[in-house]
């Protein structure tokens, strides 16, 4: 519907479009520079990584009652369709105490959905302030995860140069998930090794502390024995 945006964006993925914007801005061709600004404006207007066109495509592609994975903002969500409406499984920390809040409707691009129970009946949260703080914590965690992935990219833990240029977003998401699983496994192994080392140190310190305790006990007994000896040698005049 908007010809200049279609021309600027085309069929590029997010990474490809970012590279295109950088190259267009550095170009001496005014037409390419203008195209780069149009593409950049498109990214700014779709910062939520979802458009209404994409939402319509999702609604038509997902089958009724189907369970699928929705990847957005470096976050995996379980998505289903009920009576023609898309719903996301609620997993934010703010809903840990909200037992009746299970699904959130996906009917706009701003993340302002309606909360429902397991039967898809409307169930507003009991404490909106707590939910908001939990959502902010989840956003912070997603941001930290994004920074971690970016750091891994800089450290070349994922060799992006070997990834084909035309790789799909689904395949890229799988690679990112595999790397995240590897890092989580490595983290837990490090925690277990640290706990084992602490136990070894505590075990080695116990005999020494026992010897020290016995030495202190002997020091306390020696003055008592001397006092008893003095009492035996002393006499009392009545």
From TrEMBL:
The keyword Protease applies. Residues 179-238 are annotated as: Disordered. It catalyses: Thiol-dependent hydrolysis of ester, thioester, amide, peptide and isopeptide bonds formed by the C-terminal Gly of ubiquitin (a 76-residue protein attached to proteins as an intracellular targeting signal). One of its GO terms (molecular function) is cysteine-type carboxypeptidase activity. Keywords: Hydrolase, Protease, Thiol protease, Ubl conjugation pathway. InterPro entries: MINDY (IPR007518), MINDY_domain (IPR033979). One of its GO terms (biological process) is proteolysis. The keyword Transmembrane helix does not apply. One of its GO terms (cellular component) is cell periphery. Residues 185-210 have a biased composition (Low complexity). Hydrolase that can specifically remove 'Lys-48'-linked conjugated ubiquitin from proteins. Has exodeubiquitinase activity and has a preference for long polyubiquitin chains. May play a regulatory role at the level of protein turnover. PANTHER family: NF-E2 INDUCIBLE PROTEIN, UBIQUITIN CARBOXYL-TERMINAL HYDROLASE MINDY-2. Belongs to the MINDY deubiquitinase family. FAM63 subfamily. This is Ubiquitin carboxyl-terminal hydrolase.
């Amino acid at each position: 519907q908007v010809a200049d945006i279609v021309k600027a964006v085309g069929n590029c993925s997010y990474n490809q479009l970012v590279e295109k914007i950088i190259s267009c801005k550095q170009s001496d061709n005014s037409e390419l520079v203008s195209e780069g600004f149009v593409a950049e404006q498109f990214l700014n207007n779709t910062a939520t990584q979802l458009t209404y066109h994409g939402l319509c495509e999702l609604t038509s592609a997902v089958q009724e009652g189907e369970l699928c994975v929705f990847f957005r903002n470096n976050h995996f969500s379980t998505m289903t369709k009920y009576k023609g409406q898309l719903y996301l499984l609620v997993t934010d920390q703010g809903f840990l105490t909200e037992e009746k809040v299970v699904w959130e409707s996906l009917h706009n691009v701003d993340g302002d959905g309606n909360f429902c129970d397991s039967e898809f009946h409307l169930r507003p949260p009991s404490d909106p302030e707590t939910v908001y703080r939990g959502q902010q914590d989840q956003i912070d965690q997603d941001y930290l995860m994004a920074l971690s992935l970016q750091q891994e990219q800089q450290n070349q833990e994922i060799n992006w140069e070997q990834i084909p240029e035309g790789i799909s977003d689904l395949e890229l998401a799988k690679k990112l998930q595999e790397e995240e699983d590897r890092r989580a496994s490595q983290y837990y192994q490090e925690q277990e090794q640290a706990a084992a080392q602490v136990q070894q140190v505590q075990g080695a310190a116990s005999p020494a502390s026992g010897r020290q305790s016995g030495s202190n006990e002997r020091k306390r007994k020696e003055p008592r024995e001397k006092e008893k000896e003095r009492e035996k040698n002393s006499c009392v005049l009545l």
